[in-house]
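Dear colleagues,

As part of the handover before I leave the project, I'm documenting each prediction I ran so the next person doesn't have to rerun anything. This entry is a single chain, and its sequence is reproduced below.
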Amino acid sequence: MQADRRPAAVSDTGGVEFREVESNLRDSFRVLARAARAGDVRELGGVSIASAGVTFQMFNAAFLATPVATENDLDQHVAMASVHFDARGLEWACWVCEDWMEKKVRRRASNIFRRHGLHLSVELPGMLAERVLPPVHALPRLDIRRVTNEAVRNDFCNVGSACFNVPLPWFHEVFDPAPIWKEFAGYVGYVEGEPVSTAATVIGSGVAGVYNVATLPDYQRHGYGEAVMRHALERAAEEFGISRTILQSTPAGFALYERMGYRTVTSVAVYSS
C-alpha cells in the first residue's frame, strides 16, 4: 500500500466513517463465528472475539473494540486475546482498524504484537462509498448465482481457495456451515458453466460490507469481478435499501474501487500467529 494513501487519524477524518468500516468488518466475522460448530463470540473488555475455531487462523479473529491511548493499553488488550486463544489451542489473528490507536501507539504497534507472537500479515485500505458510480466500461455478461445450495457453495470455495492461496479444506471449514448463507450473501459468476469469480455482502452497522471479491487468474482483467460485485450490491440495495457500502481493498483492486466511487477512510492491519 502506498504511503500517501494511508488515512489520517480518526480525529482528522471523523469517527463515524471509520467505525462503519470497523463495525461491519466485525459483523462479518460474527456471522461466520456464530455458524461454526466451534465458534465463539464474546467481549473481553475492549477486545471483541469472533472466532470460527478453525484451522485457518485469519478466521479466529480478535478486534480492538475501544480506543487505545497508550502502549500499555494495547499490550493489555493483545494479552487478553492471546490468553483466550492460547487456552483453546488456536492460531489466531488480530484485525486492527488503526484509527482505534493514537498515532504514537501505531508507531510501536508491530513491536507490541510481536511480543505476543503476532506478526504483520497485511495492511488493507478500509474504503467507503456513499453510492457506487456507474461502470466506466461495458461489463461482460455472466451467469451469476447466489449461494443457496451445496454445488454453488463448493464453487464459491474453489474460487476463493485458488485466488487467496488457501488450502481448499481450510476454506470449506469456514464456509460450509449452512447458517452462514442466511446473512453472508455470496455470489458466483459463471462463464460457459465454469465458476470464475465471486463476491459477497454482509449487512451490518447501516452499510453493506463487500467481501470475498475474487476472480480466477485466467479470467482477470475482463470485468468479471466487478460484474459479480455490482450484482451483489444491487441485490443488497433491493433487499435492504442500503446504498452506502464499505470494503477492505487489496492492492490489485484499489484502482477499480476508486473508479467505483470508494475512498479510503481508515487502514486495517492484520497481525497473525
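The two ends are 22 Å apart (CA to CA). The chain has two domains: 3-126, 143-243.

All the best with the project,
I.
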